[in-house]
Amino acid sequence: MENVNTLDHLLQIEAKAAALVSGAQAEADRRIHESEDKNRAIYEERYKARAQSLESDFKKEKERLRDEYQKALGEYRREISEINVNAGNFRALLNGYLAEKG
Fold first, then answer.
1. To 10 degrees, the CA torsion angle through 84, 87, 91, 97?
2. Domain that includes residue 95, residue range
């Protein structure tokens, strides 16, 4: 009878140990999921903030470059408009050049 009591006692201890391990695993899983959720939220928050920052920087740089382009284009147009074109002299020069080649 003593052997049966010993085996029964060992089975009870094993059942308690299995329950303890199962509880520990469930707690570990819960903590892991909680940590993953927390880290995912932190990542998404930082990602969105960085994306907004980059988008803002891009828009500012695009605006700056557009303004720079418009300024350079305006200066170019002004310079072109200030050039005096003497069509008669140009034709004479061109005719002389073509006469030499012909």
1. 10
2. 2-101
